[in-house]
Amino acid sequence: MKSSAAVLGVALLLDVLFGEPPNRLHPVAWMGRLLAWGERHTPRHSRSAELLYGALLTLCGGMLSASAALLVQSLAARLPQPLGWVVAGAALKASFSIRGLDEAAGQVQAALEREDLPEAQRLVAWHLVSRETAQLTTSQTAAAAIESVAENCSDGVTAPLFYYALGGLPLASVYRFANTADSMLGYRDAAHEWLGKFPARLDDLLNLIPARVSGVLITMAAWLSGRDGRGAWRAMRREARTTASPNAGYPMAAMAGALGVELEKVGHYRLGAGGRAASASNLREARKLLRLAACLAALLAALVAVLRLARPNAYSGKA
Q1: Which pLDDT score, from 0 to 100, does residue 234 have?
Q2: CA–CA separation, 215 vs 319, rounded Å?
Q3: Which residues, in sequence order, are CB contacts of 313 under 8 Å at separation 6+?
Q4: In whole angstroms, what is the distance from residue 224 CA to residue 218 CA?
Q5: What are the strands of the beta sheet with 269-271, ordered from one edge?
Q6: Weakly modelled stretches of the chain, pLDDT under 50
Q7: pLDDT for the residue numbered 172
């Protein structure tokens, strides 16, 4: 129990102090390169072959990631403490990002505040969303960034910490690989419709609980910080299921309600309907809620680990 909490604390400290490691050292970048290599070798002769290949690529990559994480976890358990906590904490840090997400949103916020819409559009597309941004208005650009902050509060913070609390570094790594596979392959275009179907559905399944927990955490963060916690709860209950994704609507609707703004992806969904148009100041508030919700997610992960790991050295996988 003590070891798990210490590893989690080290990982959070590393994130706060250093943010993201360079790509050449980042396990998620290695996952991305493996997936890109796998995509280049996709069999294109039938839909069933693409579907099976996508499933095998995701499962084998997940097993490889879990095996590497288990090796690191076993090594960390054999090192003298606190050195072992640092090694395991560095590995866990690679599975989530708080400072990186906050800084990316901050760059968009800064561009909006100096009224440089083209730069804000470029930054939100580069860092945060996959949609076309060149035609977005100022409020739509701010809204897109807020939506991404909320959704990534789940995908990039709550979920990996949740799976670490349940299964240590291996399960956190499996989640991160599945989420990366979905982000790279899970598109509904000709090249990915069947190849990415399995990772997309797996990612949906893995995020069922974390997304809903994230919506609750954003609601709690709004209440604790004096924002509209009741509005966040109402918006989440009313609008969370209006998005195509079975999960993304929960944190996004909660964020819309907490800020009292309307978040719309034209032709897809509208959350917080009737609220104010989003602005740079709302994006600043969303970043504050992200940081507080992330702290709550870390506390929750520590609590889950304490409840689950009622035996010494459990974080290392020992019986």
Answers
A1: 96
A2: 34
A3: 3, 77
A4: 10
A5: 269-271, 261-265, 276-277
A6: 1, 314-319
A7: 97
Q: How many CA atoms lie within 13 A of 213 on its CB side?
A: 23
Amino acid identity at 42? T
Q: Which helix (H) or strand (E) holds 262?
A: strand 261-265
Instruction: Determine contact, residues 109/288, Cβ cutoff 8 Å.
Output: no
Q: Are 131 and 54 in contact (CB under 8 A)?
A: no
Q: Distance (Å, rounded) from C-alpha 274 to C-alpha 139?
A: 14
- Residue 191 vs residues 40, 42, 44, 185, 186: alpha-carbon distances, Å: 11, 10, 9, 9, 10
DSSP state of 227: S
Query: Which residues have C-beta within 8 Å of that of residue 126, sequence separation ≥ 6?
Result: none
pTM of this prediction? 0.92
CB 218 within 8 A of CB 153: yes
Backbone angles phi, psi at 129, to 5 degrees: -130, 160
Per this entry, what is the length of the chain? Answer: 319
Q: What is the pLDDT of residue 315?
A: 44
Task: Output the CA–CA distances (angstroms, integers) from residue 199 to 65, 96, 289, 293, in the order listed.
Answer: 15, 19, 29, 27
C-beta separation of 290 from 148 below 8 A: no
What pLDDT does residue 316 have? 46
Q: What residues pair up with 271 in beta bridges, in sequence order?
A: 263
